[in-house]
Amino acid sequence: MMKQIIVKFVIPLAVICFSVVTMRTTAFVDDIGSVGFTGFPFLYTCKGFHTSMSDQFFLIPLFIDFIVYLLFWLVIFLFLKKITDLNKAPMFLSGILIILATLVFTMNILLASSRDNMFMLKRDFEIKVTHRSLYIVPWF
């Protein structure tokens, strides 16, 4: 029962929220200047320094952020499970969530698969955060 809820609802909602709702941060990097970062609660991506059309992805913060989103939705569905019977949720709802999460995940993979992008385990430079704001990605 709980495994089905995780597969049908928690993972798709975590993927969608991880990709669409995030925090936009402007930070000052020595020798570079002001740079835009993305990620909540940890910063996991920014523009690449070596070319203007690249991004840098920091994998450890990215995975930790995704785990935070998973835990958030898991706690919500554990709470909902105590209140209501989640087996009565319409089948089309879980189907729509799975299809939407697959589309969002595919779009993220396509955007991240540029040859100019850099993937590092963690950020190897210091930053000074100057501004943070909630950001909803305007894909649709």
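(ticket continues) Second input and output from the same batch:
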Amino acid sequence: MKRFIKIASTVLMSGAVFLFFQWSMTEQMDQEAAGAGEIVVHKESGALTVSLTYHNLAPGIYKVSWPEPAGEVSCSYEDERPCWLERDQLNYEGGDPVTVHYQRPFDGGFLPASWLVELYKDGESKDIPLTVTVKDFSGEAFVWTAPVTVESDIAMEHVHYYRFQRTGEPFPLFAAHAAEDVWRTGDNVVIYHKSDPLTYAQKKVLRRALNGLNGTVVELDHNHTGGTVPFMTVKNREVEKLEGEILGAHLQQASSGSSDFYERVLKDLYLSEPPGTKASGKLREGLAEPQLQAWKKRMLAAEQVEDIPAFLDGTLSEVNQGETRFFQKRRNDKDAPFFFTFDHDLYFHNTRMEGQVVQYKQTIYFPLVSILEASGYSWAVLDDGKVFRIQTEDNHYRFFLDQETFIVNEESFGTGKEVIISLDKTVYMKQDELKQLLDIQAVKGKGVWNLQKK
């Protein structure tokens, strides 16, 4: 649901903070949708007192959705006549502008967009394009920034003006100190100490961490790493931890307190260094960088998560267009392998085969027994399924499960990593070795694999 109230401009005076929000509307909007407004916000003693005035608001009954927490709510008219406001309902008679007042805590220089009140009429929220102008009279040399483009930045003797690009969505504001500088990547901003400029390597890590996010503010050189989107802090310059911290914090928030294990796996997986836990190591081996980024976007898009393992498996399956139950299996098997299965039809010389194609460590594998049964080759399984002896038209092979060597014609050795593997009690052979050693070529079609001898 989009917000009715939008940010516009800020005035800072003598240690108190006043925010005046002015509105810009398109000419095509009808009279009801063209409700202009301005907001005065007074910061004092750790609280924001918000006075929000609506102009040209259509008469009627409005539902009021307050930001959490909000207290001391009231309304008023300019001519001081009575104004009717219940906690969640505003009755507006029309005519003069109406002002809504409320208070909420504020503990620093970051103003999240979520502190704005919402009005609904007939079940619908109104979307009004906005332009934000900051007028800083404080003399404290603040640098006001937001995750949108700054159109003008003008410093005069007693006032500093900032004008931000017009936008249709609410966004946070941040009042940085003069010793801090701002770097932008996409629609996100990073704040850091001027005395220690960002390096190319740090910017690269930050771009990756903030990829897929909009309206996020990151403050570096902090005394700890934490927070939740849209505001994150990073201890010193430990930027390599940011991406995992963002995902872990979001998962915890969406699931109302997730297991520490899943947060630890995500934080470890999205570090810029090799993973340290087994689970994150398996995920890193099984996912390419584009898949990791696509998975991150899907996780961040989730607003509510009831079953964390099912959610993680489901989003992974969507990203790779194949099914995995890795996290769900780990409930009972801590050593469960990470792989995807695909619901593709399998044919050998136009004859339907049983079994599924799997992807393990970013490599395609085929069910070995089903292929051997259809191939006409002479073959046998030895040593309780750990050894496969296969006679092709040209060579005789002896393959060993989970070993990097195999025997050729009982007189020489071949090498290959994970040529045959066992997943869920089914033995699979790697696609490349299937072609190079068994002379069986696999051709992928739409939802089908066709195998045939070369």
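Agent notes: The CA atoms of residues 405 and 415 lie 4 Å apart. The chain has three domains: 9-176, 179-337, 343-453. Closing as not reproducible unless the customer responds.
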